[in-house]
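TEACHING EXERCISE
Course module: macromolecular assemblies
Task: Read the component lines below, then compare them to the predicted structure of the full complex.
Student: A.B.
Group: 4
Components provided:
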Amino acid sequence: MSPDRYSALAMPQPKSPEEERVLLDAFLRGLEKLFNREDNWTFLRPLLITVEHCVRCQTCSEACHIFTGSGRREIYRPTYRSEILRRLYFKFIKHRHWQGAVEIDWKTVSDLAELAYRCNLCRRCAQACPMGADNGLVAHELRKLFSQEMGVAPKELHAAGSLVQLRTGSTTGMNPAAARDNFDFIDQEMTEKTGISVKTPWDVEGADVLLIHNAGEVLSWPENPGAFAVMLTAAGVNWTLSSELTAYDAVNYGLWYDDVQFARVALRQIEAARKLKVKRIVIGECGHAHKALTVVADRLLPRSLNLPRESSMTLMRDLVLGGRLPVDPTRNHFPVTLHDPCNMARLMGITEAQRDVLRAICPDIREMTPNRTDNYCCGGGSGFALMSGESFLDWRLEIAGARKMEQVLAAFADCMDPSIPKYICAPCSNCKGQFRDLLSHRGLWKSNRIFYGGLAELVVNAMRDAKPGFLEWEWR
Amino acid sequence: MNMLLSCFAYLAGAVFLAGSAFRAVQYARTPVPLRWELYPIPPGAAGQIRYTLAEVLLLRRIWQNNRKLWFRTYPFHMGIYLCAVSVASLVAGVEWFTEAAALAGLVLLLAGSCALLAARLFDPALKPYTSPADLFNLAWFAVAAGVPLAAFALEGAAPAAVWLAVFTFRPAPPLAGVGVALAALLAAYIPFTHMAHFVAKYFAYHKIRWDDHRDPAVAAQLLYTPHWSAPHVGADGRKTWADVAMANPTLANPAREKKP
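Instructor-supplied answer key:
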């Protein structure tokens, strides 16, 4: 059962009133813990401010790409799920009954679980809110309640996601040996393609930079970690990868649904860096990994683990603008538009470093409108790009991704001719996954030659010291 | 009777201040959360003051994102500000301004609260989200603004003059006295409702959205005991939050991974 015709969780319906009672009791226990300082110290303050002070003025509604992208369906309004939680809070936690009627039954609980996964957690609604309420956070907290109390989470994020990462080292299931093999293969290919001899260093003690990629890149877009290896080698950076469990995969799915899983992964990633005695950690092109390790984990870290963490955007800017990677921008002579991953832009404020790089390497840049911290989410945020569920893929392509595709098409409106190749620069794995599916779903690669990829690939494509033609314009 | 009304007004003012302080302390005592910034963050103290003033005085976010609501809520808020300024200027003794601000404030407040009430009752985007408490609060504002205006029209009781009389323990005309009582009760009630957002917003901005500092208080919070029931958490009522975060149950018991 689902409030729309899609499902991210496929929660089984209780078969008897007793089963329903058990489920409702579990939900109410979880609700209590959500508002308990011992259980939920991590986000209690912003959650309380949101549920107690949201005035449901709907100022946030038009800011939401899902609400507007759906043709303004009520269930996708940012306040819809929040209003249910708010009424439950006042009824069952504060015991005030004049704050609006709400009944708790299987349908309410099941709807809340599903609706928690109809929000990309991009927090554009929070940006619009005059009260400082954060309806994106409400979706996050609901996901947490279901995961941490009831063990309910999308299989792609939990059973086949963070649990696999903690056991094997990567959500892809790649163990350290397999990761090394894959990188060996990538090194060979990069050496052949660029003419620059590349050998990815592993577990180098005292290196200046520990680079952590989203391991999904290795399997889906190996040219991205390859491009980083080329850049760092050519620029003479003293860098390394780590083969420690979780430290060769920057992803941290817990950020989206479970504080415990989040903390476990983040602490292990930092601990690996400490063991290697590296000077700083640089996070590859992965938006949520940026925010998880750099920002959200920050207060969890004891002083001994508080190592410098840096975005690959600023590293690339320093290398390109500092003259360590001589570039020829005419090699990127095609139209390029830049997608701002929400986690980097709105949630971390990283908006200019990637633009500085692009201006140095691309002659034809088209900004989407709106952009930077006001950007629209691609629709794949908060793990959706990984999820297919029951028709969930249709939902994220037709509804969650609708506004972003409007922006892309507007940016390339004057060059839609298929003889002109066009490039969406999306420096985030999750966003790339969503663009791959969006472009494929709408046939825009075949009919209009709109391609997508990361920023590192564009840099290497423009590097004077590399053989021309790094970008192959082959769909994958 | 006038002595009682004056005492009641002072008491209400004290409850307002104490209640607001209580709410502030409540939020200040909530655990320090994980970092959860939202950009753009205005640079420096001057930038943050400019941003805050634009929010408070112009309701800028609503102007930018919900113009229809702005035309209803701006008079409402400006009415409250003018009434507050009027009371403050009583102390300064700026008589012409005090009375003009009070009358303008009450008119704006009445218009704004009626407009908001109408929106809550008839706007299809707001109606389903409106609770009985919302209607009650707005109606109270409308009455608390309307009664002093009626007293002005029927009794010739200028509102600021009435407030001055009440503050100095002098008698007020009957209807004007009812207006003062309603306003006093409302002031005492506000801190205990969502209308205390003037307190909450400080924390929302300065202690969440704009706060990127590490905080030593978190070390103590890591010793809290979580009680979450899902098997993968591994909470047993004794382990601390730090114990749970440092553990890796998937290595101890790989079979758990298969559970949904």
